[in-house]
Structure formats: C-alpha cells, structure tokens
Amino acid sequence: MANLMILLPACRIPTKKVRPAASDLASIQRYELPDHLPCPLHSYDGFSGDRIRPRSSRRSPVGVVALLLTVLLGTPHLEAEAGGQNILHELNRSIALLTERVTPDVVQIQSTSYAPASRGPGAAAVALRPTMGSGVIWSSDGLIVTNAHVVAGADRVQVRLASAAGAPGGSVLPPRGRRLLAEIVGMDLETDLALLRVDAAGLPALEFTDSEQIRQGQIVLALGSPLELENSVRMGVVNSVARQLEPDDRMIYIQTDAPINPGNSGGPLVDVDGHVIGINTMILSQGGGSDGVGLAVPSNIVLSVVEQLRDQGIFARGEIGVEAQTITPPLAAGLSLGREYGVLLADVYPGGSAYDAGLRVGDIVLALNGKPMENARQFYVNIYAYVANRVVNLEVLRGDRQLSTSVAVRVRSDNPERVAGMFDKEQRLVARLGILAVVVDEEVSRLLPVLRRPGGIFVTRLAASARAPTGLFLPGDIIYSVNGKYVETLDELSMIIDEYESGDVVVLQIERGGRLSFIEVELD
After folding, report:
1. Cβ distance 70 to 44 under 8 Å?
2. What is the Cα–Cα distance from 340 to 254, expressed in whole angstroms?
3. Distance (Å, rounded) from C-alpha 344 to C-alpha 362?
4. Nearest to 288 by CA among 5, 4, 23
5. Separation CA 385–CA 336 (nearest Å)
6. What CA–CA distance (Å, rounded) separates 138 from 299?
7. How much is the pLDDT for 402?
8. In terms of pTM, does the model score above 0.85?
9. What is the DSSP-derived secondary structure letter of residue 313?
10. What is the per-residue pLDDT for 338?
11. What's the gap between Cα 334 and its chain centre?
12. Coarse DSSP helix, strand, coil percentages of the chain, rounded to the nearest 5 percent
C-alpha cells in the first residue's frame, strides 16, 4: 500500500490568551471570508494580514477516522469497506450515547453585574451587564463547579439546569430546564475556579477522574453553552496533558482541539467514559475565536481546590518563604551547578521558615519528603498541599554537600484571601451583607500584608444567605466605611447597616488586593 503524506502550510503568529466565558450577545460579530482568497492554502484575518489556519485543513475526529479507515482498508475491497462503515456506525452510536449520558449534568450560568454604561448626555453611570458561562454539577445536593471569572463581581447568579427530555414523538425542541438562584460558596482566582450552591436535591452529578491518567491523543468532549447556545457538545482530542503557559508557571492546563468559545468557560471536558478530566477555562487565539487551542484546568487541581472551597470558603496555599526556579542547561552552565535539571532556590526570604531552617540562595532541592523534585512547579504544588503548621523534610545540595533539613509550612500571605478561612466562625455574621467577618486587630494584622490603613472589618468568607447580595464581596476584603462613616467594630458595622430600610443602597469603602474602591450594596 502506498504511503500517504499530507502537507499543510505552517506560519508563526502572535497569540493571546482569551477567557471565553463572557458571552455577550451584543458584542458578538459575524465575520465572513471573501469567495476568492489570495492564497488557496491560507485565510487572512482582514485586520493585520496575518495568515490564519485554513478551515479546510481541520477535520473533525470522525472525518479523520473515516480517512484513516479508507487509507488502511482500501476502497477496492468491499468487505473491508463494509467493516469500516460498521466501525464508523459504532463510533457514531457510542458518541451519541455518551452525549445523552453527560449532558444532563451540565448547566448554563448567568451572572449579572454592574458595569460602566455608555457615556453621553443623559446616560446612566452604571448599567446591569449579564455574563453567560457554563458549569458542571459536582454533587447531587446542589454544588456546581465553574470558572471564577464567570461569577466574579456578580450581583446575582442564576443557574439553568439542562433541558428535560421531551415526550416520545414530541417536538424536537425539548422544554427548557429549571432556573435556580445560586450562591457563591467560594472562589480561587489563581486557578480560576469557583464553587456555587443551588437549593436543589437529587441532581445528576458527573464523576471527576484522575487527570494524571489521561494520555495525549485520547478523545474528549467539551460541553457547555458557547455563545449562549445551551447544551452544546464538541469533540476533539487531548493535544497535551500538561501545558504550561510561562516558564515556572504554577498552573498547568490540558490542551485540547475540541472547539471552545465564549460561554464554554466552566463547562466540563469529559473522556469517553463520561468522567470529567478538566474544566474548560480559556483559549489561545489570534482573533478572539476558537483556533483549536483550548485549555482546561485538570480535574486533580479542580478537586483539590473545590474541596477546600466547600469546607472553608477559600483555597489556602502553603509556603516556606522561597523563590524556586527550574534548572535549565544554560542556567546550570552559567552557575556551574554540575547538573542540568532540578530545583534551584533563587531567593530565600529573610524571616521566612526556610531561612530559619538554614536554607540559602543557590541550594538545589533534591527531594521533598522523599519525593524527587524535578522542576519549580512540582516543588510549589507539593508545598501547597501541606496545611499550615505542618513540617516537611527537604534534601538539598549545597556545593558538593548533601544536606537534610526540616522546614515549617505557613499559609501563603501575599493575598488576604489566603488566610480568610483561618478564623473561628462564631459570632461574626453580618447577615444583611451576607458575610462572615472579624475585626482587623493586632493579631489579625500579623497574618496580613501591609494594609492601606489600620483597623477595619476583614471578610473571612461569604455567608449562605439567599437574601444577601451575591458576588459583591470576596474573602479577604477589608471594609473601612459605610456611607463615609468609618467602622472599627462589628457592632458599629451592624448598627449603621440597620439604620437603612430594605431597598436602600449604601456605599462601602473596601480594600481588595491593596487597592481601595467603593462598592454599592442594595440592602434586603
């Protein structure tokens, strides 16, 4: 049989990360290509003249299977051709059955937030802006996983369950699923994950599988509501099991060519067994649309985060006070390290637990609790897994000497939300704001980075209250004033809030991430 070779043109194009969740129908535009292109092998984006991948070069997985069967079996042999058709029919049937099984577990999420309105005479200063995304039911009692950027800053979050099955022989359009109000249990901005809760029971839930077991090339389905098209499914393969966007980036993603578009964010990426292997999060794109490079947060990372969000409302990371780098051949040659792989300590922070344990700049970490360390991301992620006040054992190489030392793990303190779940929950509920909080006293201040001003009220987590405003606050926020009146105790905060009637709007000054801002809160 003759060899088959397909040649496709290649070109280098600057890419950008696009978070595809914010599907706003008012901003969706349709671009149509001319009938005659300057080059039959390339399309052009119409703006910069950059070449983009031709549509004709992309085949669906079923098309690829059909092509391979045709080449391998050969068309002259009718019996072999019939066998190939049977394989295609079985593949088609399996995918259809898989889709029927997993789609009831996928939801559409609409979050509503205030955004600056268009300027002009008589224009309002702010306007409500709906944002659409997707989610997957994690537990039958109403816990739903999605992306943080789908719901961050939302004033109201609603979840639409999957469409109910229609009557046999009835309309091809099924009745729409129920719409439920949702509360934000917690979110983690670094991994871009959020956990929601709806008041429902007996919901279908998908199982999350071990993402370390997935393999490059395996078939996957991406489910969600792209461009607000509810309950859509796209098929592709795993292009990479661990895609790192920047050197030593602490996040990795599953890369897939299953098409992902605005509105898909937060939806599941599932394997052929119907298990979740990732949460669709972003795309790499030249023009904002799907170019076949989708990224999903691996399921193992998802589970580690959402389990803490469920229990504590935040995801707390451990740290030992070092800056680690992956050793590369140029780094090894320039510093005469004697090895071209591993983890180099580029900085050891004075006063940190690693410094107190005797670690120094230039040490090479060989193992953590007996587990060999191969790169900086692996080192950081393994430290994250240990809760505060635990001790880890590090084996390090210093020159030609191998040392062993014990280091205490502390909660990472570069962001207040990291320590928000450490406080006792008793008697700190501010019901009308929907928050649990503590006073920023001397003890609390020691756990936080330097704040813009002393005192204030520290938001430790969000309260489970359907009447409270949703999405306005985040764990780690510091409240300084209400309508210009500074508050120093929880009693003062509650007293000022209680002076206002239901429907009144109050303005709070808060600090978030080192920045001051004012937020408007409509009271119940």
Report:
1. no
2. 26
3. 6
4. 23
5. 32
6. 12
7. 94
8. no
9. S
10. 83
11. 37
12. 20, 35, 45
Q: Which pLDDT score is estimated for 84?
A: 63
Which residues lie across from 402 on neighbouring strands? 397
CA dihedral 66, 67, 72, 76 (to 10 degrees): 90
Instruction: Write the DSSP string, 191-210.
Output: TTEEEEEES--S---PPB--
Q: Identify the structural domains of the chain with CATH numbers, from first to last.
A: 57-115+124-163+176-311 (2.40.10.120), 318-411 (2.30.42.10), 419-522 (2.30.42.10)
Percent of the chain residues topping a pLDDT of 90: 37
Tokens of 343: 């983890």
* pLDDT at res. 127: 54
Which secondary-structure segment (H or E) carries 270? strand 268-270
* Residue 434: both structure tokens together: 């929907």
The reply to whether 149 belongs to the active site is yes
Report whether 509 contacts 479 (CB < 8 A).
yes
Give the burial class of 225: count Cβ atoms within 10 A of its Cβ; 0-12 exposed, 13-18 middle, 19 or more buried.
buried
Query: Six-digit token pair at 52?
Result: 């983009």
Closest CA to 32 of 48, 52, 46, 11: 46
Could you list the beta-strand ranges (E) of 359-452: 364-368, 371-372, 391-398, 401-408, 410-411, 429-430, 435-439
The dihedral of CA 464, 469, 475, 478: what is its sign?
A: negative
Residue at 444: amino acid letter: V
Residues in the chain, pLDDT under 70: 1-84, 113-128, 165-170, 288-290, 387-389, 413-428, 447, 463-471
Question: Of 105, 192, 257, 477, which one is the catalytic site residue?
Answer: 192
Catalytic residue among 265, 290, 299, 353: 265
Grouping H, G, I as helix, E, B as strand and the rest as coil, residue 134 is strand
State CA 186 to chain mean position distance: 13
Catalytic annotation on 192?
yes
Active site residue 504: no
Looking at residue 39, its pLDDT comes to: 37
Structure tokens that stand for 518 in this block? 């004012």
From the candidates 105, 111, 149, 257, which is the catalytic residue?
Answer: 149
User: What is the maximum alpha-carbon separation in the chain?
Assistant: 86
152, with CB counted inside 10 A (0-12, 13-18, 19+), is: middle
The answer to whether the CB of 236 falls within 8 A of the CB of 260 is: no
The dihedral formed by the CA atoms of 444, 445, 449 and 450, expressed in degrees to the nearest 10: 160
Q: What is the pLDDT of residue 159?
A: 94
pLDDT at position 32 is 33
Distance from the Cα of residue 170 to its chain's centroid: 38
Considering only CA atoms, give the Rg of the chain.
26
Q: What are phi and psi of 320, to 5 degrees?
A: -125, 0
- The Cβ-side half-sphere exposure at 249, using a 13 Å CA radius, reads 11
- Cβ atoms of 435 and 463 within 8 Å: the answer is yes
Q: Are 285 and 353 in contact (CB under 8 A)?
A: no
